[in-house]
């Protein structure tokens, strides 16, 4: 089961990287309910093993591309973000370490997997994966655009995805750079 979850997370990461055209240095925010992945109600069956499997699947894709993973914590930590320090060199750091039932099993796995993890209150990511209905929108740049993934489940959890695009400014007479869509 854990190997299948890791493979599904890897497939979702590959798909969002390609669809969102993520580049080195950009950020993918991921919210994850390991309870939902296991087929339970969000927040009811936190699983460090599932959190680690998902983290490993995502990092297998993101690390070689130089894309930063931002792991969203649960509401117990006000949906703080765990991320590599080098991704947010000027951010205000929060003094917290996530735990499986106070921060999320996924964010805990990321914290222990990162080289130099920090917690920050908010971020503006370039794309996102919401695994199990964790509501990542507060951590996305404007304007977020829904992405329909082929890999739309990890375990039993529904996976929703988004990418961002630059804002359109100037109204109907403006000319837009079509390569930025």
Explain what you see:
With 181 residues, the protein is of the alpha+beta class. It is built from 4 helices and 9 strands, in the order αβααβββαβββββ. Strands 1, 2, 3, 4, 5, 6, 7, 8 and 9 form a 9-stranded mixed beta sheet that branches. Strand 2 and strand 3 (81-84) form a beta hairpin. Helix 1 (2-20) runs parallel beside helix 3 (48-65) and helix 3 crosses helix 4. The termini are far apart.
Secondary structure class reads alpha+beta
| CATH architecture classification | 3-Layer(aba) Sandwich
CATH homologous superfamily designation = Hypothetical protein TT1679
Kindly give the count of domains: 1
Helix fraction? 25-40%
Largest sheet: 9 strands, mixed
> What would the CATH topology be?
Rossmann fold
Number of E strands: 9
Structure annotation, total helices? 4
Mean of all residue-level pLDDT scores: 94
Order of helices and strands: HEHHEEEHEEEEE
CA radius of gyration is 16 Å
Any low-confidence stretches, pLDDT <50, length ≥5?
A: none
Described by the principal axes of the CA atoms, the overall outline is globular
Strand content: 15-25%
What is the assembly state of the chains in this entry?
A: single chain
Supply the CATH class.
Answer: Alpha Beta
Cα end-to-end separation: 37 Å
Secondary structure elements and pairings:
Blueprint: H1 2-20, E1 27-32, H2 34-37, H3 48-65, E2 68-72, E3 81-84, E4 93-94, H4 105-113, E5 117-120, E6 127-131, E7 144-147, E8 153-154, E9 157-164
Parallel strand pairs: 1-2, 1-6
Antiparallel strand pairs: 2-3, 3-5, 4-5, 6-9, 7-9, 8-9
Helix pairs in contact: 1-3, 3-4
């Amino acid at each position: 089961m854990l190997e299948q979850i890791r493979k599904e997370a890897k497939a979702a990461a590959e798909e969002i990287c390609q669809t969102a055209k993520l580049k080195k240095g950009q950020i993918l925010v991921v919210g994850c309910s390991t309870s939902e992945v296991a087929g339970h109600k969000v927040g009811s069956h936190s699983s460090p093993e599932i959190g680690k499997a998902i983290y490993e699947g995502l990092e297998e894709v993101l690390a070689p591309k130089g894309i930063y993973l931002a792991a969203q914590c649960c509401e117990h930590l006000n949906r703080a973000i765990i991320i590599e320090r080098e991704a947010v060199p000027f951010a205000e750091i929060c003094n917290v370490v996530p735990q499986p039932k106070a921060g999320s099993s996924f964010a805990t796995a990321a914290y222990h997997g990162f080289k130099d993890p920090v917690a920050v209150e908010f971020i503006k990511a370039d794309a996102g994966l919401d695994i199990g209905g964790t509501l990542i929108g507060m951590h996305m740049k404007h304007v977020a655009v829904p992405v329909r993934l082929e890999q739309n489940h990890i375990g039993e959890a529904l996976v929703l995805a988004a990418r961002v695009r630059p804002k359109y400014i100037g109204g109907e007479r403006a000319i837009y750079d079509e390569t930025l869509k």
